[in-house]
Amino acid sequence: MSNGFFLPPVGFGPGSQPVEDEELAYLALPSGMRTYSPHLPQVDDASQVTPALKTLIDIAEACATCAATGQHAEFDLSGMDAASRALMAETLGQGEVSMKLRGIPALMVQESVFAGVWMLAGVGVDRVEVGSVPELAVARAHQGAPAPLLSAPRPAGTVNAPALIAELVEHSASFRPGQEPHVINLSLLPHTEADLDWLAAAMGQGAVTVLSRGYGNCRVTACALPQVWRVQFYNSMDSLILDTYEVTTMPEVVIAAPEDLADSGGRILEVLEAIR
Question: Which of 39, 85, 129, 194 gives 155 a disulfide partner, CB atoms 3.0 to 4.6 angstroms apart?
């Protein structure tokens, strides 16, 4: 028996096609990626800012040396005259990575627009350090009270946190400088909110917090347990997309690579040529 009723084709009918002459609305793509763009300070009389120009030349040379040998260098800016200090600040600018170092004295660290060139400021401190990462950030990272570990109050609903704590403790104790990082990717592991809370409490709080701003944000926090860091990546919508614990000296996302340092040295010299 034939039936005269037919279902309409899927995807057709009112509302399935764009209105004539109507523009299509696309989902906005992620934005906000920070890239290097050269900034040329205006200098009317270079002879009035000789200390700054000399220091910038020394910083460029230190970048090349560090790229080749890994040797760090420091430059004290506290005795620089106001005009020279202003030129230093304008030339170096602000890059992607900033840090907060707790301790005495507490320090704010800002990477310049030249990767591997760091500005450190605090009570009695005004200097530039050239290196893959400021040495104090490594030295202070896990200072403070020891990690509570299993003595931390255990919330109801914990499931996998005890095994993760044991894994981090084991790799922290056996870690040696130069080893490959050991990474626990929480985004790929089954866990409860109670697991995350207890794990964070067990690892404790270190003395260094890092924010790296690039395509989205990355927050890096030192734990009290030696060599353990929490690394959290957020997209440009500020949604957490990757949550990890790393056992390493310093997470790679914070470190300026040798090629970055070499490039920074060359770019500083280009700026100096333009100023002169």
Answer: 194
CA distance 244 to 168: 12
CATH of the domain at 266: 3.30.1370.140
H or E segment to which residue 107 belongs = strand 107-111
**Global confidence as pTM:** 0.82
Instruction: Please say whether the beta carbons of 236 and 30 come within 8 A.
Output: yes
% helix, strand, coil for the chain, step of 5: 35, 20, 45
Beta carbons within 8 Å of 99's beta carbon, 6+ residues apart:
107, 108, 109, 110, 134, 137, 208, 209, 210, 211
Domain shared by 165 and 217, yes or no? yes
| Domain range enclosing 168 | 140-254
Q: What is the pLDDT of residues 9-62, one digit of tens each?
A: 544 445 545 555 555 444 444 444 455 556 677 777 778 899 999 999 999 999
Residue 132: its pLDDT value, please? 97
